[in-house]
Amino acid sequence: MRQLIRGMQPGAGKMARDLRADAFRGIALWFILIDHIPGNRLGGLTLRNVALSDATEAFVLLAGYAAGLAYGATLDRHGWAFAAAALLRRLGTLYVAHIFLFVVFTAQVGYSAAALESSAYLDEMHLDVFGEQPYLALLQALLLRFQPAFLDILPLYIVLMLMLVPALPLLRWPWLLMGLSVAGYVVVRLFGLNLPNWVDGGWFFNPLAWQVLFFTGCLLGYTPWREGRRGPAPAVPFHPALIGAAILALLLGLVIVLIGDYGEQWLAELPQPLAELLTTIDKTGLHPFRLISVLALAYLVGHAVPRDANWLRSRLAAPFVLMGQHGLPVFCVGIFLAFLGRLALEMDDRWPMQVAVNLAGLAALISIGIIGAWYRLRERGESAHSATNPAAVGLRAPAASSTTAR
Q1: N or C: which end of the chain has fewer CB within 10 A?
Q2: pLDDT of 399 higher than 70
Q3: Any domain includes 207
Q4: What are phi and psi of 9, to 5 degrees?
Q5: Is 304 part of any domain?
């Protein structure tokens, strides 16, 4: 583990990672697993219980931050064409991962429904149409227009990354990009625009609205070149008034969450317009209250946790950092495990099973992060050896050429 902790930073000559983004993305992935297991009592301790935002908002914001950090640097070093090609390559990986996860998840739910002689799983996961029209459903899944439950986050991420391709040059003009993004968000909210969904009209996570959160993360992550060298990372300045406003926003969000969970009788006593407002804070179109909530939380955490905090390289933080650095396989495994956790808790939801499900789930996610980090270290070590060994370079040249072609 100590070697993996040392390897969390990139090799010499490469841009330093922001371990804060990795650590909190790992926590968000863990929360997504917890929240996707019905009946999981640990779900009462995740972000969604104390704020209007949840792990999904945190994941999208951090994904934008990482994209701005990585592809913004590629843009400055190699130009738009190369950066766009790198983005499209990543998009291909995300798309293949989504289709693979779709096939595995559909088989998992379908087998469970057949074995237990219950169609409830198919109905709840919105997979009933797959049994009725399998060929058409598969085609719509390939077009990202059929998204069963739990399988709607990766399509959102894919479309957001696709939006970033033409928007990459605008990272150098942050006010223009932010203005266009906010204007698009307002138009989408006012006119109810959404991408079409084959089953129920629109995407559960509307990319046309969620892009404002993603591009906010991109602009926070992008570090421009100034006078021939990379300047400081952009940040919203520390100010007591902003700190107070962020705390107030989170407290108001907590009150709204508590009213929604425990205060139905209070809603009846509120004026009709206010009651309607509090009961229509939607997630699909990223309601402004949810957007403010996640941005306020990010502002406070960003200033409370410095980029060079020692605990980010500690043994305690390392599992979450590694999970965040290998988010795609960790997410896919988490979706698969969530349904297994549900089956286990439906058989026995007492405390021993609760503990076993959550410990096994977290251990599996950490294992994926560790395996990914180990493989990356081995790959980096082999590359370093090849770079200092001309004979090795010559022997490995055909394989390297093949890899590049792929």
Answers
A1: C
A2: no
A3: yes
A4: -90, 145
A5: no
